Amino acid sequence: MAEPLLKVAGLQAWYGESHVLHGVDIEVREGEVVTLLGRNGAGKTTTLRSIMGLVGRRSGSVRFEGQELVSARSDRIARAGIALCPEERGIFASLDVTENLLLPPVVRPGGMDLDAIYTLFPNLKERARSPGTRLSGGEQQMLAIARILRTGAKLLMLDEPTEGLAPVIVQQIGQTIRTIKERGFTVLLVEQNFRFAQTVADRHYVMEHGHVVDAVSNAEMAGAMDRLHGYLGV
Amino acid sequence: MLEDLLFQLQIGLPQVALGLVNGAFYALLSLGLAVIFGMLNVINFAHGAQFMMGAFVAWMMLSWLGIGYWPALILAPLIVGAFGVLLEKTMISRLYKLDHLYGLLLTFGLALIIEGVFRNQFGSSGMPYAPPAALGGPPVDLGFMFMPVYRLWVVVAALVMSLVTWLVIEKTRLGAYLRAATENAALVQAFGVNVPRMITLTYGAGVALAAFAGVLAAPIYSVNPQMGSNLIIVVFAVVVIGGMGSILGSVLTGFGLGLVEGLTKVFYPEASSTVIFVIMAIVLLARPAGLFGRA
């Protein structure tokens, strides 16, 4: 079998003196939607930030399309075709909606054009001139996702896109993730809510204390509920 | 009483107009400081020295190479800006992880060294620099006063340069990167922007603005090694009043305080050199983030 699009092996990471990832192993194949599940503090967000090059000290291996990126700077990782939608969304207050949307430079051909993005997120067109942070939480999340669809990045890493949003918006985000999967994007998703994860993902990894402790395909999910409840404590 | 005041103002109007010329320099210099502070979080104490370098480079070009005012107005900022890039690359960039105070100390030290080198080389008496022929004509009648053409040009050039800087920062793609990086540099870099290079070039651009002001100043003040340090103290007060890092704030405050200084010369000349600092103290007490700053 061909090498997966993203292959993370033995990834360790440190925030200053504290050792937060203790050897994470993940594979994501092209076109898949894969989630990282786990409790708060299990290392899910840190895994995404480490892949993106945003954690100061890291070791192990992050291979993307066969290219080793574990020691690369974050702008190079972005140009290799990985994009992050951060947990805090990272909408810029001093930029209007359009400027926020157009901010990430196009790193490769193959991204969605503006018309397609506006079809997917009509609100963003209506509110083009509003300052980015005047949008509602749901709209800000849409903007944060829309922003990385343009760039041609192949792998989109979404960090808890449903956090704190109303159920109807969560459904909309689920629909968005299915749409971008159909368009051929690969998604690595961090989630706490495995019921939501189940509706969008092909496979799931479970993290605990800075490493991956289990892997479940979506088909096996129903049978693995007891196990998952144990990990996630819900 | 009111008539008295109006009469005083009428004969004082030239002072007010000249205040606008000082304001032009305050605006240009605080603009460069604001651009640098916004992006680097460094208070560039070498700004006055870089302003002086701009004037000196223009003077050297004219007296050693015969290169006139107009080419110098472009070339001197480029040369001094390149020097700024070198400083950022080799020294200032090492301090970003430390407290702001270290950047301030470093640039202050650099300012002293640069000034010392120029004083050693050129003495402190100052050299004249003639305004270009095109701007050396007879003073223009503004209705209430005759204003030397060159001073009028300084006001116009400062306004245009401020407007251009504002447009670049508020209306272009590059400006959007800069504003975004001011808020969250790590994320902008994670989108694929080479932020360290952008920071270096921003410092270079801020220094080039100082040098541009220096070339503008060369025909007005004599070209001497202290010309920057005399001005920069007032400019820092302007920056504090306007609000650190605000582009529009520094331009409006620069011109506004130039006018206030001019008006003070009319009504209470004894206070004209301290009025800006009095305003600074009041603003700091009432609105510590500055008039246009975000708290």
From TrEMBL, chain A:
Transmembrane segments: none annotated. Coiled coil: none annotated. Keywords: Amino-acid transport, ATP-binding, Nucleotide-binding, Transport. Residues 6-234 form the ABC transporter domain. The keyword Nucleotide-binding applies. It comes from the Bacteria. GO terms for molecular function: ATP binding; ATP hydrolysis activity; branched-chain amino acid transmembrane transporter activity. GO terms for biological process: L-amino acid transport. Belongs to the ABC transporter superfamily. PANTHER family: HIGH-AFFINITY BRANCHED-CHAIN AMINO ACID TRANSPORT ATP-BINDING PROTEIN LIVF. This is ABC transporter ATP-binding protein.
TrEMBL record, chain B:
One of its GO terms (biological process) is amino acid transport. Its main location: membrane. It is a multi-pass membrane protein. Pfam families: BPD_transp_2 (PF02653). GO terms for molecular function: transmembrane transporter activity. InterPro entries: ABC_transp_permease, BCAA_transport_permease. Signal peptide: none annotated. It is found in: Cell membrane. Keywords: Amino-acid transport, Cell membrane, Membrane, Transmembrane, Transmembrane helix, Transport. GO terms for cellular component: plasma membrane. The chain crosses the membrane at residues 12-35, 42-62, 68-87, 99-118, 150-169, 201-221, 233-260, 266-286. It comes from the Bacteria. The keyword Ribonucleoprotein does not apply. Belongs to the binding-protein-dependent transport system permease family. LivHM subfamily. PANTHER family: ABC TRANSPORTER ATP-BINDING PROTEIN, BRANCHED-CHAIN AMINO ACID TRANSPORT SYSTEM PERMEASE PROTEIN LIVH. This is Branched-chain amino acid ABC transporter permease.
